[in-house]
Amino acid sequence: MSERLADERIQRFLASREVAVLATVDPDGAPAATPMWFVFDDATLGLVTQGDTAKVRHLRRDPRCCLVAETGTRGTIKGVSVRGRAVFVTEPGARQALVERLLARYDPDLARLWGGRAMPADRLLFQIVPAHVRSWGLGS
Description:
The structure is a single chain. The protein has a domain at 8-89 and 123-136: Electron Transport, Fmn-binding Protein, Chain A (Pnp Oxidase, Chain A, Roll), CATH 2.30.110.10. It is built from four helices and seven strands. Strands 2-1-5-6-7-4-3 form a seven-stranded antiparallel β-sheet, sandwiched between helices. It is of the alpha+beta class. 25% of the residues are buried.
C-alpha cells in the first residue's frame, strides 16, 4: 500500500534529511544513483541540477525515477522512498518559487555555490510527482 507524501511522519523525516539519493534509468535500463539536495511539499519533491548531466539526459528520455532518504544504523534504520515521474519546471513563477525554497533550505551554501542568489543559467529545475510513497521505521 502506498503512503502519501503529505503524511506528517514523512514530512518530519524529510525535513531532517539534507541529502537524498535520486535514481534514474540509464539508456541500457540500469539504475543510476546520485546524491541530491531537495525540497518538498505535500505533493511533490523539487530538485535543481546542472543541465548537462547524465541524470537530465536520463529523465528527458525516461522520466521514471526514485528518491530515497534514509538514516540509521543496524536495527534503527528509518527512511522514505518516493517513486514517480520527473517534470521539468519551465514556468517562470514556478521556477522562482522553487529557487527561493531551495535557497532558504540550503542557506547559505547554495547561494555561495551559485555566487549569489540567482540560479545560474546552466541549471535546470524539476519536480518528482509521486506515484508510490513508502516509509520504514518512522513509527506511527
